[in-house]
User: Fold these one by one.
Assistant:
Number 1:
Amino acid sequence: MDIRRIMRKLPHRYPMLMVDRIVELEPGKRAVGIKNVTINEPVFTGHYPDLPILPGVLILEAMAQVGGLCLLPEEGLEASGETPMVPLFTGVDNARFRKPVSPGDQLRIEVTVLRVRGLVGKIAAVATVDGQTVAEAELMFAWGRV
């Protein structure tokens, strides 16, 4: 899924759109997304200017966005005339940050849906750079309108 399709599905825009491409997708089951980290990210002007590191909360947000894309139906929402319901990030469990993420890194985010019951769901997410785990977490969602 390219960035144009992602932008039709997610309400996020610059600077908070944290996924550049979806490279694998099994709707409702699993997804793999890519975030290319560049020095042009606005956060790097203030998050350690001499040693820029992507904040962990933005890694969690990238995980949530890939998870949201996984939970959305593959087709249909963007064609709807009314404001669609989307999965909203509501909580995090067991977050661990293993290694720093820096400009020039390509963040690979793998999510697996653990469960969906009614209007709530939970995913497991792992973020890697060059095959090494940099972060992992379980994220909760509730369906709502933005």
Note: The radius of gyration is 15 Å.
Number 2:
Amino acid sequence: EKGADLGFTLSETRVQEDPRLKAFGYSLEQVSLLLGPMAADSKEALGSMGNDAPLACLAQQPRLLYEYFRQLFAQVTNPPIDPIREAVVMSLEAYVGPQGNLLEMSPSQCHRLLLPSPMLSIEEFNALNQISQLHREWNVHTVDITFPKKEGIQGYLDALDRICDQAAEAIEKNDRIIVLSDRATSADRVAVSAVLATGMVHHHLVRNKWRSQVALVVETAEAREVHHMCVLVGYGADAICPYLAIECIMKMAREGLIRKKLTPEQLIDNYKHSLDGGILKVMSKMGISTLQSYKGAQIFEALGIDDSVVDRCFTGTATRIKGMTFELIAQDAFALHEKGYPSRNILEIPGLAETGEYHWRDGGEPHVNDPTSIANIQDAVRTKNDKSYEAYSRSEYEQIKNCTLRGLLDFDFEDRAPVPIDQVEPWTEIVRRFVTGAMSYGSISMESHSTLAVAMNRLGGKSNTGEGGEDPERSLRMDNGDTMRSAIKQIASGRFGVTSAYLADADELQIKMAQGAKPGEGGELPGHKVSGPIARTRHSTPGVGLISPPPHHDIYSIEDLKQLIYDLKCSNPRSRVSVKLVSETGVGIVASGVAKARADHILISGHDGGTGASRWTGIKYAGLPWELGLAETHQTLVLNDLRGRVIVQTDGQLRTGRDVAIAC
């Protein structure tokens, strides 16, 4: 409507000095590694090498509640959707607002608001907030999700009840839009987590059969990346305005911190477009094509959240590892708020913190692959130094304890009698069970790929081609007796390099249904990496980027997988057939189906596996630790009397003999 003020004023505070960014947990890595590329390139940045950072429930520093949720994905049964080839059926459009009685045909059924995307710019949110000026019946009720800092942890808990009460008042007044806002955050007011408030209000309305009467909009400084938006939408948000992330991007442009010279409008459009594309990719992992189906579907597993929180705010979400209670969540909120608005004057390094979430930083979060461990293992290998390996093993043991679930376990030596070493299987036989990760030629160099193959062939283990095929000449034996042939040939969704000769020259054929670093997604090889030899091996064109589709386009059920297993056994009767799955809740049932489909071997991959290139959302937030998936798979196969049919294998940041022993 003419005369409505939809604009906003950008504060003069610099990015590095903005207390709100610190209070909501923004780090220098998130701003430079995520927000900058999203605003400049209109798509999320690529990462690689997997995720060796600690789980949120094991982190030393306070984490946002979003990071305790792991994305679920489809594998084998209802497959993921290819969001590129099948873009025509993908949609982020959704009608919001009161729903009429579906069994009655009346004009009121049409009185709803169509949003082309759940992501709102600040101007779009202001327009929605003032919609009652144009449509009088569309009243907006804003619920402040902040509370006075002086009330302490009890104030946080009381705020949860107040938020639900105010949402109920909005229903009684027939308001059509409820806005959950943390705009009032200041030195004296602390914000309740937006995802906690959203899930709580959503389920409060559902329990009282009021949810269809209102739209739920979130105005938050907390959410900034794709996963955050997915969690908010998955737990009931109809629309989201990430106002602080938008303001941060505009300040970065003002200070020359974004490499492309674009107008503020272009930067915000790019940021929204990258969020939209990321949400579509996450939806497609589960085979969902429309936002209306994804909204409120809760396609997540909570990792490290207590039942008391899940029952009230995230009802129905699977949670096997307990942890964060309301009191602990409140403590993290105060710890983050203290960084932005300290209660007392302290001396600290100016600027946003280097938290080390994505890359190792001295004083930041621990990583499995820390510099000390890498230096020790390199020295041990180059100089055959036993002391260096012992130092590496001790260092890795400490990092594993800090970062993984298996680090919380220990061996029960007291109730076990030692076995004489001559009764133990010799190491020469043990290493025959070892295999390399499935990294393709292209994601790593020919020198690395072939060296791994030679080493495993000398040991008697197996190397894996990955999904990039293999040059037939590598099967020839060299003058010194070595061979660069990979014993395991992988068949992935792109089928790059898969020929009859490729299948016949294998000891094991592995069907990759999902990959630990990016389950539910296809592999990506940028065009600049596709050189002549790589293109020839993959039967493609040099310089043209290669993207594997998320699903195998010939596998849409367990019966289709059984057919492929049968075909592969016909192509190479002496080879065993393996199926690669990724750990998630329910993977045991999928593994049972794979065993019934006559697979000889099942690989359960952990969420922290390596990759040549993947979006950061997939690397950080999809899949679960192999410890959970392996235990579920083994128990489910035993219960169904299928364990004797298959060999079960696992991978994902296995570093020492202790890790292997725990896996066994």
Note: The radius of gyration is 26 Å.
Number 3:
Amino acid sequence: MGIITPFSFALVLRSINAYTKQFQVNYKEKDNAMPLLHFSKSQPCKSSSSLKASYEDWLISHGLTVSPFHMRWQTSLFNHQFYNWGRWKPRFLYLWFSIGMIFGIAAMFGSVILLAKTLIQTLSQMLSEAPTGQNDQMLQVVVPGVNLPISQLSYFFIAILISGVIHEVGHGVAAIREQVRFNGFGIFIFIVYPGAFVDLFTTHLQLISPVQQLRIFCAGVWHNFVLGIASLVVLFLLPAILFPFYYTGAGALVTEVAEDSPANGPRGLFVGDLVSSLEDCSVQSVEDWNSCLTKISLMPQTGYCIKASVLQQLSYPSRARKAVEASQLCRTNMDCQKDFVPSLCVTPSLENQTRFLRVKHPPQPDMLFVGHLLHLQYTVSLSSFIPRHNFLSVDLPVVMETFCKYLISLSGALAVINAVPCFALDGQWILNSFLEATLSPMVVEKQNRELVGFLILLGGSALLAANVALGLWVVTAR
């Protein structure tokens, strides 16, 4: 999960780097003090030491830090831009980050309630004999290849990186607004997850008031929330944005058919086909396609009105296809009495969970599908956007739509998870500043306030860890 706070993670990294630099200095001092006797065979060691020192100097000069499972790059190139943002319209920024502070405090309490509710749902799902899906849970553990398609990993990582950058921009601009020195901005990769961080002058951060600290610490989750709302607005307005190039409401456009799909074949679906209906269920968008498949799966198998004179000829597959394509749908024989020619309602004899389905995609002949509807749903990709011109890509609206959904999901998750009062997350610093601002008149001893904060952080960390552990078990074990 890309839900480790880059901001608080950077504070830990700075202390690690300071220790590393001290270790390197001591090592070099010892190395220079050691040799009193020189041997010709020691020359390769000097070359190796010199090469290592040159490599370390090159990394430092370029702002790079490399360690096991972690790589980061820090620069001051963007400092001028950050200071321009932090000094732009001071009254507006004061109001903006004050609203963010209120949101961050509310999110801290709300995240605990949400995690507690999610934990109860997960436990009830684990203990139930017939476990249900996790679709009703707002927070889910994401495992690539299990509940995250490998083909969509690029969306996932890019959305995490953008969400992390926006998160850190919030911290940086808020810090400059509160007169905290801004040292630099950077990007890191932890194992495979990308993120960002800002380097702030810790002494300045400790000298300002708790309310000012809250504006800085809450700015990250506030900006993630705003990014999620902005992505939601873009997703909602996407048909209007793409209207000059694409239109909607005329069907579901096929954009991809998997090689192992039951819809793949000479009488199946092809890229560019426009699906208009599934049986008697009209399809005008991808949402209609999914709802129709769900509706059909919950209802008994549909029958077809077949003339009595044709019924005896249906042992030939070609004639069976023609008879089905030309017939109307029915549930009972009474539905077939509208014609003057005697007809019977014939229902295909199928196994459990298997469906016979007629898919209309004019001007092509109907596709007759036999199999599990989920297999059809997961192996055919569709879009609600139909290009007005042949040179337009059928994939562009899908890419934009999918990316907006990932931004909404991941940026929202960062806002919620980072607000949890948990060690190493923004919630830790939000809680500490909140307790300093509210408990100081009642709890005079700072040590007692720190004890209260520690106990709350311990509970929040345990709650988050339990959600992650049980969520992983549910996703991977079921």
Note: The CA atoms of residues 75 and 184 lie 6 Å apart.
Number 4:
Amino acid sequence: MTEPWLQDACSLVGAFRAREISPVEAVQAVLDAVDADGELNAVCHVDAEKALAAARIADVDRPFGGVPFAVKELEPVEGWPYPRGSRLLEGSTGPFTTVHVERIRDRGGAIPVVQTTSSEFGLVGYTSTKLHGTTRNPWNPALTPGGSSGGTAAAVAGGLVPIGTGTDGGGSIRIPAGYAGLVGIKTSFRTIPFAPFAQIEPLHSTVGCLSRSVRDTARWLDVANGAHPRDPFSLPRVEGFEAGLGSHDLAGLRVAVLPDFGGAVVHPDVVAAIEDAAEALIAAAGMRRIDVDFAVPDMAAVWSGASLPTMWHGMHAYWPQIRELLTDEVAALMARSEAFTIADAAAVDPLRKQLNESFADLFESVDLVLAATNPDDPYAAEGPGPTRVGEVDVEGLGNTGRLTMGMNITGVPAVSVPAGLSPRGMPIGMQIVGPRHSDALLLSVAALFERERPWPLVAPSARPA
């Protein structure tokens, strides 16, 4: 068995170029690790034959030349299964490959090897479905790696694959990154195209990666960003995310430290970890802490109000006959979408405008916000979402969404980085949030924090005993 690569993807490219390891060996290591895994349940499809063939001719001079990567099952790859975590779509196959995956494969030279699990249609913050079963956290397999990109998070942190794709429509990259001790960025809206067949409404979702290092994420953006004619919202290409790491003058930047991001119930242990990490980062960068009053409007109402009509359009022809095929949470959302009215839809836009104004006011007062990624340690892998944080009753997954959804609704970027471990030994994520189009700045801040507070690149369980 070939040992899996447990450093970051950029170092693997360096090892290829130094001829310390070959792309074929790296791909075989992924295949062996996935085959040997009997615990994480992070992978739902393996394309061994094509991956090994691609590895034999890999161009290691490309940014990710020869690097094996995972693709979350919400992103189609032509010819691969495309069930989106649902028994309703079991047996379907991808009709095309997304521009995102194409760019990482063709521009970047990386090799898609495995498909990773998602929550059903990406609608739930943990990864347990009737189709694939339960995906588990490599830091503690009794607990969830989060969702909806839980499979990629578990695979990358668990040592199965060096890097993989994620999607983030309400926190689905950042939440798993926080729970699994990884780097996860939700970019400014449509930095990476959502194409072909670009999603027009709701305007929440972004695509990106979950990685072990800031430079991996920066290089990923270098490869994947840029406008595409099939996504009318996609942004012009920006150069130099990786080259620009550490080049920003951070001294004097105004920073608000808001562990609860103005409304979530956050466990005191998480608050303490965020405060400690923020203090270290602010001191290292010479930034200024600014106290602000910030309370967010009801983000869950905006997010669900914008999403429910899309759900209804996609599944109403089969409802309620399909109820038994769906997870309880998705069935409940379908029932809500059935009752959704024109008046409900009309109420969404004013709330969205209010939220956008709140964020605009915030970023007139400060340059950056530091906040928790998740309110507490991860909960049971099988779910459901938590109803208590410490001694306080909460609204389940909606409480977590208060930390993450606002960035999706307003389009601002946020990167989650590991900020330490909880008393139970689980990763705690810290979000670095900025105004729209500050992605490069956020990555520079994250890189400084990475140098000041290095984190384990994989979970302890990924390393040989």
Note: The two ends are 15 Å apart (CA to CA).
